[in-house]
Write a structure and sequence with these properties.
The protein is mainly α. The protein contains 13 helices and 2 strands, in the order H-H-H-H-H-H-H-E-E-H-H-H-H-H-H.
């Protein structure tokens, strides 16, 4: 039977080889797994029980460890348990029955669909020059219609729109690649920007001051700040992460499948995507409490509606 250390090493090697997990990600997973291994000792992880998982997480809660950190550790342990199943080391799921700790995901407030429409229409015109208008339109179209991270957006090569099948190849965290649908309006705007910048000879869709380097995050933040002002929206409410969150929230509002959303967002684990459903569940509860005849917030309403805090 392999030792816990050997199992952890094998798991992290598989993460690097099969998923391209970054070094920092692997280091964080190692720390989490080694902490659980110490809890189980002298029992190895190959022979640990679901009861040990339960008592381990109960102890973390008693110690006051943040629910977010507990959720991260459980996500890591679930992936490790799947690895042991797939490699035949175990025949059962070590984490079966262990509920994900409930916590407020700390997600930003999404913009409404009306705000997004205003940002796209009003925030992409009236800037200092024609190119800034065009660049703003491309960036906002891409962020909202694809849900890209800002690092993914700014690292897009100039060749990214050459795929005529309506898909955009994105290189995400850990070098993992995924395909996301590219809207016709985003493609047209990007092609127009590339035509405008053709004399720069830049390999990037969003060139920086030095065309051989991409636009910096700081430079993009200034552009987004100006877009919000043009649209009459508080700039403090607008950020690349807010647009990504708005993309995910609006898709779920309109019935998108959680697994499909996981693929679009580039989340390695479905548990990360499930944060959005937790936020939506709380919003639905709040809506009932606020608008239902028996949900006025008085004692009578409390008797009818048990609103748990996420």
């Amino acid at each position: 039977m392999p030792t816990s250390d050997a199992l952890i090493d094998s798991f992290l090697e598989a993460m690097a080889a099969e998923r391209g997990a970054a070094l920092k990600t692997r280091q964080a997973y190692r720390a989490d797994l080694e902490d659980f291994a110490r809890w189980c000792a002298p029992t190895s992880l190959a022979e640990a029980s679901t009861e040990q998982v339960r008592t381990y997480f109960a102890s973390l809660g008693q110690e006051g460890l943040a629910a977010r950190t507990q959720a991260r550790r459980l996500s890591c342990l679930r992936q490790f348990a799947r690895f042991m199943l797939q490699t035949g080391i175990r025949e059962d799921d070590l984490t079966a029955g262990q509920a994900m700790p409930r916590y407020s995901g700390g997600l930003p407030h999404p913009l409404s669909e009306t705000d997004i429409q205003r940002l796209l229409e009003k925030g992409t015109q009236g800037h200092a020059d024609e190119r800034r208008d065009l660049l703003s339109r491309v960036a906002l179209e891409l962020l909202y219609t694809t849900g890209l991270r800002i690092s993914e957006l700014l690292s897009l090569p100039a060749s990214c729109v050459q795929n005529r099948q309506g898909m955009l190849l994105v290189r995400g965290k850990g070098g993992r690649e995924r395909l996301v649908p590219l809207s016709s309006t985003a493609r047209e705007a990007a092609e127009e920007l590339l035509g405008y910048d053709s004399s720069l000879g830049s390999p990037w869709l969003f060139p920086g001051r030095n065309p051989l380097r991409p636009l910096t995050r700081q430079g993009f933040d200034k552009i987004l700040h100006a877009c919000a002002l043009q649209a009459g929206i508080d700039p403090q409410r607008v950020s690349p992460h807010v647009l990504r969150h708005s993309f995910a929230t609006h898709l779920l509002d309109r019935g998108a499948d959680l697994r499909a959303l996981q693929m679009l967002l580039g989340h390695a684990d479905i548990a990360t995507t499930q944060i959005y459903t937790q936020v939506m569940t709380q919003r639905l509860k709040d809506a009932v409490r606020q608008h239902h005849p028996l949900g006025s917030g008085e004692k009578r309403a409390e008797d009818h509606f048990s609103i748990e805090k996420a």
